[in-house]
Queue: 2 jobs
Job 1
Amino acid sequence: MSTEPVLALRDVSKHFGAVQALYGVDLDVHAGQVMALVGDNGAGKSTLIKSIGGIHPFDGGELRFDGSPASITSPKDAAALGIEIVYQDLALADNLDVVQNMFLGRERLQGLRRLDENGMETEARKTLSGLSVTTLRSVRTPVAALSGGQRQSVAVAKAVMWNSRLVILDEPTAALGVAQTRQVLDLVKRLGDKGLAVILVSHNLHDIFEVADRIAVLRLGQKVAEFDAAGTNQQEVVEAITAGSLQKVPGMVEAQPS
């Protein structure tokens, strides 16, 4: 693991009017590392990943990418750096097949007016194979016909296809069965093994301890603890989630759990 993190946040903050959604957050995510982000509802997890992704740019603090200061003011900025986010709704088009979804908005042309169908299919197969996704019978299967675990695999493959350096996964095992959850967790591990930096947002501590290298705990918009996953336990993490020590935020109203 490189000593220089792919993503480094220093004292970042975000507020919406009088509500301080994030305050003084520091976070380092390294290549080949799965960083779990945990916290109760209203802790700031969604705001943090959306700020990293340029949807709600940070109001203060510093963001560094590959050791250099970076400004992310839009999702386009994040994508240009190699940051991809797989949100809980996956943003897949049910009426399109796997290949069409993986290249949606980034289609390749053959000549001026024809899509390079063969080239896109080959690249899609290569990406899925590189992630050891073996449960898809055909990359021409409509997404509507896929299981929850297969859909999650397609969304992740789509994210890592574009020279990604950092992949953020928002509750990837929510509403999945046991077998599908196992499939997705194995995929998360493979992302780290391939040298990508990964942020995993999840409420499921069992899943987190399966795949995470480090665990960062947010509470009411502040990072109150960070653990080496191998050196802690669920009880210690739960205590930080529910009772981690907070800094006083001057003149601002704290975000309340929803």
Note: DSSP finds eight helices and 13 strands in the chain.
Job 2
Amino acid sequence: MNDIEGAVSDEMKRIGAASRIRPGASVAITVGSRGINNILTITRAVVAELKSLGAEPFIIPAMGSHGGATPEGQKEVLAHYGITEEAVGCPIKSSMEVEEVGRSPDGIISYVDQNALAADHIVVMNRIKPHTEFEGKIESGLFKMMCIGLGKQKGAHHYHRAGVNFGFEHALRTGGRTVLENCRVVFGIGIVENGKDETAIIKALLPEEMEKGEEELLVKAKEWMPKLPFMEAEVLIVDEMGKNISGSGMDTKVIGRIMAPYSEEPQEPKILRVVVLRPTPESEGNCTGLGLADFCHKRLVDQMEQHPTYINCMTAQSPEKARIPAYYDTDRKVLDAAFSTIGLVEKEKARVMRIKNTLHLEEVDVSEAFLPEVEGRHDLELIGEAGLEFDAEDNLKPFE
């Protein structure tokens, strides 16, 4: 998408935003903690359009328990993406205080940020994509933002608990409906990215359109979802993990592991050993998802901040993802340990894939064992040959 600002403007005009928002009205805009491409540009464009209508917009950090579940921490998460008051041209109101706004027939409580409730209108904005914990027609998107994002830590914890009993899709659907019925949501902005992590769709949805509209956008998101080129391997090397990459640090659908007692494991890919080497700086020590790996570098353990990692995992009812795998102080030792646990397969003949992270899969390093398959595939292109290169400290040189 070449014209982000133009797409935002066109969508807001299409749904008649000018007739729904009076001059002087305050408008809360939700912005989450995920690494959404062009999020600064999209947010700034929404703010500018609202200002052109005479409204008074402000940003709500809407991210459950992320940022250590503190107002300051959540504001810092936004700053990592360049979203500051100066950059977007409006205030950022960060608080962990919520109010109950209603209950579903089966008792699921909906909580909403107090600053958002005080506004004349709420604009729910989020990327729509597959969720890392379950499969459904609604997964991670606008309904999740209304429940988990606006619900802050208290709401996120309650919805995840409800998901264990009722299923996550049911919890999000019923919770989102409660928010729509009882809060002043004026419209939603759904963002869909293609397999190259590029903004592909920006769609404005009126409250009565949001449930069906999100279902339709999720279909497109799943079609474009990045995935590994091969569905079986002895070892997968993931250079980096982090909250800006996936809610679980590494996308569970990409690596083929969910590791939650209340969710079925994916049928594929089948990866015997997962190795992860470093955290992203944007995660600020939140190493949620480290437990998905079998082996890791000591730097991940050293940089893990216990409080944000634990509160995130406990809120999500996933203590498994805070577990620390076997770790070593060099990448070479990490890989030697991984290769020693792949059965009778010799290291030189092992099927090995290396990726930068689970979000960027345009280029993947693979071992020679995959070469016959690569040559037989029309959807793959062999762009070069190189082995695993280590530096003087026995750590892998950066993924190129």
Note: Residues 232-375 form one domain.
